[in-house]
Design brief:
The chain is mainly α and about 450 residues long. Helices cover about 85% and strands about 0% of the residues. The chain is globular.
């Protein structure tokens, strides 16, 4: 069994982070299943509706990443300092707080779903489909928050494989129910939403039962008091991942607005295919970063500078290898993947393939900013981590998607994604260089 205190060479680092990578990739794949079944069995407009409203739902659920990454880093540092009782109290408080937050967010979603969808430009059947899909998923938001959170905390607990098994269980549930509800019973959007909601319940509730009893991990749910300072630190430290996910969702909403303006529903549908594949590829970078973060946090807490330097160097090399492989895959698979989703419509298919070949260049750069943000989170520097995420997504992508189409029309929208990632890498390198003496990496 690999311990956080071990020396991590490439092989051990890959073995430790692999379950987190597979877990997040699998989560992304089963998230794509809704789109596949809806597009092929319900039609283009319901497919566009799923892509149109999903960013708002992801904003609500990604609060779990804030608690998971920010809390995981703080727990790992506390464990590295040998304070196990405090680590369990922090762990428990984080889980309880996130569950309560999920309930409040679900209520918020029910109030603002229609106004937000209308403000973004949805009307007629597209608007009604957005509301149908969104309202069913809002019921499961508290479990969605917990699912995201435990994807990070399983790695902190030294149980990344168990986290993978839970994710697979939730994913298989979604896939089987999608096939039954949408392809079998022909329930359309309602069936796809119900399948996803049930799978999120599975992914959120199983970890609660596991950590709620005695187990062979160093963490379990215990009685705890309220430590407002620690909870605030968790939120600040995890704000980068929260900001990153919120920003990505806001950017997706802005892209949808721009695409509705330039090409209508076809543009939203094409962008949906890009986002589905982008989610899977980005999940490799995020999964690796999430899996490595507890190791970084532990050795930083233990003041092991040599190990910290090795972890950063190895991580940069591995992310670079992943990036090249993903770019090549994107170029080779643009047509087959587009055909899988929208092969029934030639105009939409051609638009999607062209967009895909441009979008693939972003994979060469996106992983480095994701790694840099996660690395600073693991060091407890939530401010720098948040700045990288904020600039990468909300600033660079928003500016690009607003400015580029003025010169290059539809192509400007696709090119804007690549330009934003290049700028984010430059910022990440500057922060890593500027903070090297403070953290001794």
């Amino acid at each position: 069994m690999i311990q956080l205190s071990d020396h991590f060479d490439y092989k051990r680092l890959l073995r430790y982070t692999c379950p987190s990578v597979v877990m997040l990739v699998f989560t992304s794949i089963y998230g794509v299943v809704d789109g596949f079944f809806v597009s092929n069995y319900a039609g283009k407009t319901p497919f566009a509706a799923v892509n149109f409203i999903m960013p708002l739902l992801m904003i609500l659920g990604c609060v779990g990443f804030m608690f998971g990454t920010g809390g995981g880093a703080l727990i790992a540092i506390t464990m590295g300092a040998g304070r196990m009782k405090k680590a369990n109290e922090l762990f428990s408080q984080i889980v309880f707080a996130s569950a309560g937050c999920g309930i409040l967010l679900a209520a918020f979603g029910f109030l603002f779903l229609r106004p937000v969808a209308s403000m973004m430009g949805a009307e007629g059947r597209l608007l009604e489909d957005c509301l149908t899909y969104g309202r069913i998923l809002l019921i499961a938001i508290p479990f969605y928050v917990l699912q995201y959170e435990f994807q990070c905390l399983f790695a902190t607990a030294g149980k990344p494989k168990l986290g993978l098994y839970v994710t697979v269980a939730a994913g298989v549930t979604n896939i089987l129910l999608d096939a039954l509800f949408v392809a079998g019973f022909r329930w359309g959007l309602e069936g796809a939403a119900a399948a996803t909601s049930i799978s999120q319940f599975v992914g959120g509730i199983i970890p609660v039962f596991y950590f709620g009893r005695k187990n062979d991990s160093p963490l379990r749910l215990v009685r705890c008091g309220f430590d407002g300072g620690a909870l605030l630190k968790v939120c600040i430290n995890g704000s980068s991942e929260l900001m990153s996910n919120i920003s990505m969702s806001l950017v997706s909403m802005m892209y949808n607005v721009q695409l509705m303006k330039y090409v209508g529903e076809n543009g939203v549908a094409a962008y949906g295919v890009l986002m589905y594949v982008g989610m899977i590829f980005s999940a490799v970078f995020i999964g690796y970063s999430v899996g490595a973060a507890p190791v970084v946090g532990y050795h930083y807490g233990a003041q092991n500078s040599e190990e910290l330097k090795g972890l950063l160097k190895k991580s940069i090399v591995l992310v670079g290898i992943f990036a090249v492989c993903m770019f090549a895959s994107g170029q080779l698979l643009s047509a087959p993947l587009s055909r899988m989703f929208v092969g029934y419509d030639k105009e939409l298919f051609d638009m999607t393939v062209h967009a895909f070949t441009v979008f693939s260049f972003s994979f060469l750069f996106s992983g480095f900013a994701i790694l840099g943000s996660s690395f600073f989170t693991a060091l407890g520097d939530g401010l720098v981590s948040a700045l990288i995420s904020f600039l990468r997504t909300l600033v660079f992508q928003c500016l690009s998607v607003l400015i580029f189409p003025l010169f290059w029309q539809l192509d400007g929208i696709w090119f804007s994604i690549v330009a934003a990632e290049i700028m984010a890498v430059v910022v990440t390198v500057l922060f890593l260089f500027g903070k090297r003496k403070k953290y001794h990496y």
